[in-house]
Amino acid sequence: MFDRKIEEYIQSIRGRYQAITLLGPRQSGKSTLAKKLFSDFEYCSLEELDIREIAQKDPRAFFSKRLGNTIIDEIQRVPDLLSYLQGILDDKKDQRQWILTGSNSLLLSEKITQSLAGRTRILQVLPLSYHEIPKEQRSLDIDQILFCGGYPRIYDEKLRPEEWLSDYIQSYVEKDVRSMLQISNLNQFQKYIQVLASRAGQLMNYSSFQSDVGITHSTAASWLSVLESSYIVFKLAPHFKNFSKRITKSPKVYFWDTGVLCHLLKIRNTEQLERHPLRGHIFENWVVSELHKNYLWVGRQAPLYFWRDQSGHEIDIVIDCSTHLFPIEIKSSQTFHTHFTKTIEWFNKLQNNENKSGLVIYGGNAQTSFSDSEVYPWNSDFNLILKED
After folding, report:
1. What's the fold here for domain 7-124?
2. Which single residue of 36, 255, 339, 364 has CA 20 to 30 Å from 152?
3. Strand order in the sheet with 121-124
4. Using 50, 70 and 90 to split pLDDT, how confident is the model at 211?
5. How far apart, in whole angstroms, are the C-alpha atoms of residue 2 and residue 324?
6. How much is the pTM?
7. Residue 387 confidence (pLDDT)
8. What are φ and ψ of residue 199, in 5° steps?
9. What DSSP character marks residue 244?
10. Does residue 238 contact residue 306 with C-beta atoms inside 8 Å?
11. Alpha-carbon distance 246 to 168, whole Å?
12. Do the beta carbons of residue 238 and residue 248 sit within 8 Å?
């Protein structure tokens, strides 16, 4: 059982909310976390056919049998239950507490918005971040971390990542997403997600999927929305502050787990990863997802963007600090070079930032500073970094 960074935040809010909803991809540890933190609650899984049948056919009977505080696992199996739970939460005399977990879907998102808006605290539980991996299994080799990803079972059961990820993609990503989208052509969807993987960390161009995959602009956008709602990928939006410059308005797409990303790119070991032409994008993907997780641990939406103008100037990450934008550059090189800070210096002059600070996260192991920017190695505690800024 892993110690998750979000545990402290959940413990701090459990007395303020009658319902807490944990969403995230399958196998990310939602059920384990719920059982750990709410061990005195009744546990009810809608994966079990008999329980799911009762919930579907007679939801009032399902809730009447839950006499105390309850964990309802895999709520996406019977999303209509949320409409009945709304009435329970609105009944001031009913003090039962509810923990819901779900592998998100478009239908579940819609049901939560309609039925439980303002009645539940929604949190995301994602694959393990680097500092959630047990110390004895926490590799000091960045390529090993990128290749394995962060799904708990790989570490808990010491599984071969290439085998487990293959099963995961076939069993959950392809099966679940295809089911939601009602895709009949599996080969076309497989090609789509592989092409998407090859563009991780790059600007999203829906129209290009017509020539590469044979699907329309709208189909490519629809499929991406479902992959987002299933916590396979996420979009990083450009910051629209233009400083009198023409700026890019297309988002970038990243994968929540670099293990899944590597497998889709047909990388089968760390030796292949070391030589892969997209290794820099994979490293950037990992850093961006790690930064996102640090905000989600405390129940915040990450104020992370990228900035790029049409002259080729780009900042990998900008944190919107309200009064200014804090720039972060990501470099996969194990050796720090002074030119890593050049774009940060240019950007701070552009926004007239008196602080002139910035951050470089790189693939090396030494912490240093250069030209008003801090330089941190890849295995730094990003939570401490973000608190400082």
Report:
1. Rossmann fold (3.40.50)
2. 364
3. 42-45, 70-73, 98-102, 19-23, 121-124
4. very high
5. 37
6. 0.94
7. 60
8. -110, 15
9. T
10. yes
11. 42
12. yes
pLDDT in tens, 100-141: 999 866 668 778 888 898 999 999 999 999 999 999 999 999
**Where are the extended beta strands (E) located within the chain?**
19-23, 42-45, 70-73, 98-102, 121-124, 233-236, 252-255, 304-308, 314-320, 325-331, 358-362, 368-370, 373-377
User: Are the C-beta atoms of 20 and 120 separated by less than 8 Å?
Assistant: yes
Supply the pLDDT for residue 290. Answer: 97
> Rounded CA gap, 311 and 248, in Å?
10
- C-beta separation of 22 from 30 below 8 A: yes
The 10s digit of each residue's pLDDT in 232-269 is: 999 999 997 766 666 778 999 999 999 999 999 999 99
Closest listed residue to residue 305, CA positions, set 237, 352, 248: 237
Residue 118: count other Cβ atoms within 10 Å of its Cβ: 5
In angstroms, the CA 82 to CA 79 distance is: 6
Of 264, 268, 265, 258, the closest CA to residue 293 belongs to: 258
The long-range contacts involving 238-243, CB below 8 angstroms and separated by at least 24 positions, are 238/305, 238/306, 238/307, 238/308, 239/305, 239/306, 239/307, 239/318, 239/320, 239/325, 241/307, 241/325, 241/351, 242/309, 243/350, 243/351
- Integer CA distances (angstroms), 164 to 39, 151, 174, 190, 205, in order: 28, 10, 14, 18, 31
Could you tell me which of 381, 297, 302, 383 has the C-alpha nearest to residue 5? 297
Distance CA 247, CA 172 (A): 37
C-alpha 269/C-alpha 163 separation (Å) is: 11
124, two tokens: 């995301």
Give the alpha-carbon dihedral of 255, 259, 265, 266, to 10 degrees.
Answer: -160
Q: Which has the higher per-residue pLDDT, 68 or 321?
A: 68
